[in-house]
Amino acid sequence: FKQAFLFFCLGGWDMPSMSSQIVDVDDNVTGHLWSVGNISELAQIIALIALGQAEHAAEIIHELGPVIPVHSISEFYNEAREQLEIRGTTDKKREVSRYHRDGFLFECISWIVSQQEADENTYLKDPHISSTTQGLDGLIIQMDPIEKVILHTTICEDKCTENPRDKFRDQVMQAFTEHHQNKRGRDLLANAVNLIKQSGLKGTAANLAAEKVYDKTYRTYRAALTVNSDICGAEERQKLFKGYDGLTDILKSQRIGATFIVTGNLRDWFQELAEHVIHALNEFEEREAAHV
Asked: 168 FRET partner, CA 20 to 30 A, in 18, 135, 247, 287?
């Protein structure tokens, strides 16, 4: 912890908080394997997101700068800590609270991986601060800096689950199939336009620039799932992502299957991560108070 705190005080980090590598699946799916590079930095970045400072967090990721929040207030810190805690008066309510909390943490992990790979012409939908918010888990828009049109769209489904095969087959593929048939087109368009506005386009121009969001030629699907250490080879990943080729008329590179291996109990690991995030929030608040 002392070493981690020293890095925190002095500035940037020597390694990214998350890493992603290409792995084999089959002829239909491009595999990605995610792993934690530095859990202390990961927790600090998630703490910034929980404070509502995703834009600031993105700048830190790209510049490898010091992980220090923009000035905040005590109410924001309290709300962020509450989001990381398990609440409820019954076992069922506490279970639902845990699933929502862990889903938020995994959505942050997915966003961080994407930010680390993004360039200045790539725009990402921020993670849901409210754990009960519905809609797209993630959206990545790559823009042509000259023509100001979409070069590529990536639709993300991130699932923190003990049953990754069931979740992929029954929920992820259902969502992707609906997108593939443009049955969720309005939601996709609205989110794309919000991201495109970050490039400087406004109003009608932003809507016109988003036209290619409907075109499967310019689209990638990315399913990200938590898995245990048993799913560590191409054969197991092939079973996990069986049926992905149901999204027809696209290339292998447009079907991404990402796995995040958790050793041991899934919920215990995310509880540990949540505690790291709460610790980071406490540390941020104490540092702010010391400088007031």
From this structure: 18
**What confidence score (pLDDT) does residue 128 get?**
84
pLDDT at 249: 96
User: pTM of the predicted model, to two decimals?
Assistant: 0.91
* Residue pLDDT, tens place only, 223-251: 999 999 889 899 999 999 999 999 999 99
CA 199 to chain centre: 21
Query: Lowest-pLDDT range, 6-10, 184-188, 253-257?
Result: 6-10
Amino acid letter, 137: D
Looking at the DSSP bridge assignments, the partners of residue 224 are 158, 258
Range of the domain at 215: 2-290
Residue 272 structure tokens? 């540990």
Number of C-beta neighbours around residue 87 at 10 A: 13
Q: Could you tell me if 213 and 206 are in contact, meaning their C-beta atoms sit under 8 angstroms apart?
A: no
The whole-number pLDDT of residue 22 equals 97
- What's the CA gap between 280 and 46, in Å, rounded? 9
Question: Residues 6 or more apart from 39 whose CB is under 8 A from it?
Answer: 17, 273, 276
Please name the residues in contact with 63: beta carbons below 8 A apart, sequence gap of 6 or more. Answer: 12
Tokens 């923009």 found at? 70
Reported residue count of the chain is 292
41 burial (CB, 10 Å; 0-12 / 13-18 / 19+) is buried
Domain count, the chain: 1
User: Taking 80 as the threshold, does the pLDDT of residue 99 lie above it?
Assistant: yes
